[in-house]
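Below is a typical protein record.
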Amino acid sequence: MLKEKGKFKEQKGTYLRGKAIKLGAMLTKQRLASTFKIQPTKQTVSGMDIDYKPSKKEFREYKIVKGKQVPMENQWIELRGKRLTTRAEKGAFVTARRQKKGGMNWL
């Protein structure tokens, strides 16, 4: 699930834990969303799982409340300096700003 516009939006598909984390990290790097989390489901998924953890240089596993670090479970936040690094993110940011201005009708 990616957090966009203040709400978590579920992504299609059911994945094993390692693959779900890898997919969330990849989608977070490509979109303006900076937070993703995984949730367990009751569905069974077959296949080989991979052991994957997002890079500590790009993601953090805690939120900051009143200046203190509060650990989170199954949730990651993209570090502030690593946001808006890809071409797709920058393009989405520009498009969002143009839409908010309300000038011309954009996509």
In short: Strands lie at 2-4, 7-9, 35-37, 59-60, 62-65, 68-71, 75-78.
